[in-house]
Amino acid sequence: MFKQQIESEYTSSKVENVIQFNRSKKALLKGKDINYFCEHLITASPIVRKAFIDIYREYNEAFSKYVIANTENEYDYKYTRFGGTYRNIIVQIDINALPVEIFMGWSDMSQTEVTKYIKSRIFEVENNWAAYKAHGTPCKPERVTSYRDKTITMLDEIRESTGKKIVLLAVTDEKYLSILESEFGMEYCSHIFPEIACKEIGFDGVWGAREFIYHVEDKKDIDSFLFYVRTSNPPRKLRNPNEDIVHPILGISKYREILKRQSLTFNIDNPGWEKTDGRNINDSKKYMVDMGIAEILDSPDDIFLLRGKYGGMRIRAKPSTGSYGCYGHLSGFVDDKKFRYSLRKGIKEWGGGVVVQPEYEPPAVINSIDGKEYVYMDRVFCGILNGAEEYFGGQRIYVPKDSFEVKKRRLHIVDEAVLGEIE
d(Cα 167, Cα 180) in Å, to the nearest integer? Predict the structure, then answer.
């Protein structure tokens, strides 16, 4: 029954129930309002929380070898070593939404079966934490979400144990402007005061490259800070992988060494490395292979190896490094000649290979108020508290089935999305 349940969910988008999206709360994302499903609260059972913690732990173990390969100096990522091993302080686990009976612990599945089931539904374990305000909005105004409470506690614990402030750092001007817009709705502001950043999202400041260089060269107090580093490439690079990007921090070995030493994130590459270099880990998905939730194609010649395993099944392919969101993703059937052509082209264009996995059809619900059909996914966060892996909570993301993004088989937070709280 367990195997049949998993296999059936690859092929059909089943309307499970009818719900009512009543008056919604608003949260800022990309300078716009996002709808929140008031009174919506899914409480994960202990068995599901443990499953996510175990998956988070497995992810950290799988990713460690890529961190080691990426290091250039002895003290790189030294503040991410907990108990002698590298651990990402927080991750976002995106999955095909869990049936409510599993989330609430009503099924008779064992711990091992639940963990295996959740793993089979993972789209990605994302280690570039973002959308801080939107993800922390509660289902009721008077509530403080589990996610917000635990992320703030996590940052406070790091500050207390190290005696350092924590700054959100964008390594390019484009990324800095993107953060100002997405987190604060400010398109033309050039600086965020530390007290505003701390109050809104928990950091002690938000910097671009100029602030970083100023504190290195002029104030000479850079050792007083740790950095949550946002290194994802700008959209123009994601649309054209051969596009050149100016790297005022990462392109200078002195600055890159400082940043790697004081980073809380595993995502700092040397821009001088070729895109096929195995040391690249920015937006890496190679860990998925180690976790057994995807496999990698290093060469266009590998495509035909998929036909025996995935014949007749829709699969999703994504660049193994350097891409986030749905940029560079391909969805189709390996028996389709056009899809195989696009896959070969993608492997050559991106370099470093692509990871492939079966693609689920998302579950769906009907909004009883307007009769609109929504498909949905779950986003769960896990992080480090008191030196150990912990479940943080998350969100269920509903998107209209007739939206442009869903029609393109891209399920994520968009303007039309309605978000519900998971604790």
Answer: 14
Which residues are paired to 420 by β-bridges?
396
Output the six-digit token pair for 286. 């190679």
Report CA 216 to chain centroid distance, whole Å.
30
Distance between CA 201 and CA 99 in Å, rounded? 31
Residue located via tokens 């821009």:
271
- Cα angle for residues 84, 207, 235 (degrees, 5° grid): 90
7 vs 389: which has the higher pLDDT: 389
Q: How confident is the model at residue 154 (pLDDT cuts 50, 70, 90)?
A: very high
Residue 248 has pLDDT above 50, yes or no: yes
Higher pLDDT, 227 or 178: 227
* Range name among 61-75, 238-252, 279-293 with the lowest pLDDT average: 238-252
Classify the phi-psi angles of 357: left when phi > 0, otherwise alpha if psi is within -120 to 50, otherwise beta. Answer: beta
Which of these, 384, 347, 378, lies nearest to 363 by C-alpha position? 378
Residues paired with 169 in a beta bridge? 207, 229
Rounded Cα distance, 312 and 269, in Å: 38
pTM for this entry: 0.89
The C-alpha atoms of residue 283 and residue 249 are separated, in whole angstroms, by 18
Contact call for residues 276 and 352 (beta carbons, < 8 A): yes
Could you tell me where the DSSP H helices lie in 72-145?
A: 100-103, 111-120, 132-135
> Count of alpha carbons within 13 Å of 240, Cβ hemisphere only?
5
What is each CA distance from 3 to 9, 83, 291, 307, in whole angstroms?
Answer: 10, 37, 19, 21
d(CA 26, CA 413) in angstroms, rounded, equals: 14
Could you tell me the CA-to-CA distances from 92 to 165, 240, 270, 287, 335 in Å, in that order? 23, 26, 25, 14, 32
Which residue reads 């939107």 in tokens?
A: 134
H or E stretch at 264: none
Place of tokens 């690859």: 10
Quickly tell me which residue has 């990698």 as its tokens. 296
Secondary structure (3-state) at 119: helix
